[in-house]
Hints:
Layout: H1 2-30, H2 39-67, H3 73-100, E1 123-124, E2 127-128, H4 129-147, H5 157-180, H6 184-188, H7 196-214, H8 226-244, H9 253-278, H10 287-301, H11 310-335, H12 343-361, H13 364-367, H14 373-404, H15 411-416, H16 418-423
Antiparallel strand pairs: 1-2
Helix pairs in contact: 2-3, 2-4, 2-8, 3-4, 3-5, 4-7, 5-7, 5-14, 7-12, 7-14, 8-9, 8-10, 9-10, 9-11, 10-11, 10-12, 11-12, 12-14
Amino acid sequence: MMKIISRALVFVGTLLVTTTVLVTTTVFAAEAPKPVLNPGDAAWMLTSTALVLLMTIPGLALFYGGLVGKKNVVSTISQSFMITCVVTLIWFICGYSLTFGEGNLFIGDLSKLFLKGVDVAALNMTVPETVFICYQLTFAIITVSLICGSIVERVNFGALFIFVVLWALLVYAPIGHMVWGGGYLSKLGVLDYAGGTVVHINSGVAGLVAALVIGKRKSKARPHNVALTMIGASMLWVGWFGFNAGSAVAANGSAGMAMLVTQIAAASAGIAWMLAEWFSGEKKPSLLGLCSGAVAGLVAITPAAGFVNPMGAFFIGLISGVLCFLACTKLKSALGYDDALDVFGIHAFGGAVGAVLTGVFATKAIGGVEGGFDQVKLQLLGVGVTVLYTTVVTFIILKVVNLITPLRASDAQERDGLDLSQHGEQIS
């Protein structure tokens, strides 16, 4: 009798335990959080998207347009506008899918080809996926546009068109996936909050490679309108709040801190560049120097914006302002390359400085990661992988494009200016 009772108790106990596990599992599975639309977050991301697009058209277009000679202004601003259109279509067709699709460690898949499955109800975290798609698109646009600053006043517009298509697919998408799409660098723990590697090192290195392959300009004109450059730089500064604070993908404290440290870094870098220039051989603080310094600080704080406190941002700005000034003057002069608008010196160099200093100044209370030697090593790895991949693939793309159509405008076109010779338009 006792055996029967014992067996019955064991059976009942086993049944209860099994039932409890099943019920618990079911409840937990049922209670797995689903994305819920947050109107405040959505509103902020809509605003951030507009701000980042403002950075390219008209911000970067005016910034670059003021720096070139008068006979190449239309050509320069046309490049930014063309790239905005081309990259948008690429993003719609497969760029978004290749960057943020599951794929593998190095590239996404084509599950979102032609934005398949994206509708008004689709969410990414707490915002509509449509908004997230547009937001990330603006990053791709400005990254490709930045490259043009290295090769203005001599690049063939038709060749640039083909280059943009290939580079967006073969360089931007893989790097974006590796850093932000769950790929290789993100799994290693490399930090890049808003694009130090994906945007700035990527574009700056590509710009240098393009400048070396295409060759130096026949003649170098002085900036025709520094006021336009200042207006463009100001638009970049304002738009950068969408760039960095928008990368929180929420209207919260992280976004607020990212905005604050962005402002501090830009200001300290602007002053640092100005003072470095003032006490160098120039002996005068230029408006162009102030603008360049502020942009350098914005670049450097970009990878760090979600991980550092205001004091860290202050030092990142100071360091990047001085080092980028030296890169754009001493290093450029020593090596003799013709990076027309200092894309390498400001964006690649500034992005690398910011990426490494992110590993130094990261604060656990801000972004959940504490800076230190191990994190610095990871940041250096991220810089190295980006530089190596971008250099090799950009070089190959340029050589392939040159087989299709000449990369460089003819001597006559360059002499007459690309505005009239390639676009049939000019500013009065």
